[in-house]
Write a structure and sequence with these properties.
37% of the residues lie in helices and 10% in strands. The chain is of the alpha+beta class. A two-stranded antiparallel ribbon has the order 1-4. The chain has a two-stranded antiparallel sheet with strand order 2-3. The chain is globular and about 55 Å long.
Length: 150
């Protein structure tokens, strides 16, 4: 986490260095998708995770005191990067409201009472829950309502 030109009302750019991520995954249980990925894919996952978290939430100033992101937020970026690598970027069906699916003939049942997950299932549910301690969702109503289905 680096310090940039800091305005107290605006968060600095959210990014995690590869060294910081390597240190995080060295102490994390089951980082298989991280370890199996190329250096280029790891960097893309970290950058993608940081971008998703930056736009999905309005961060409270407590998340970046003095213009430096807290270690807990860096950990969230790492967890999100791992989740993206595990899913190869695809949202999970449950996050899109899929309640039941069949293969032949094709049938899909959606849970009409369930709202789609944050950023249409592109943010890990655990990351979204933990981020809530430092932020609020950027979308009105508490969750981003769009999905790739419409």
């Amino acid at each position: 986490m680096t310090r940039s030109a800091f305005r107290p009302d605006e968060p600095p750019a959210l990014s995690v260095s590869t060294d910081r991520a390597e240190a995080y995954f060295a102490r994390r249980l089951y980082p298989d998708a991280w370890l199996a990925s190329s250096a280029a894919d790891r960097r893309k996952a970290l950058d993608g995770a940081a971008s998703l978290l930056a736009v999905a939430f309005c961060w409270d100033a407590d998340a970046f005191p003095g213009g430096v992101w807290r270690g807990e937020i860096a950990d969230l970026v790492c967890e999100e990067a791992l989740w993206l690598l595990e899913r190869r970027g695809a949202p999970s069906p449950a996050a899109l409201g899929v309640k039941r699916a069949s293969a032949g003939p094709l049938a899909v049942t959606f849970d009409s009472a369930a709202a789609p997950g944050p950023v249409a299932g592109l943010i890990a549910p655990s990351v979204a829950e933990l981020a809530a301690a430092w932020s609020r969702p950027a979308a009105a109503g508490g969750r981003i309502a769009s999905t790739p289905l419409g």
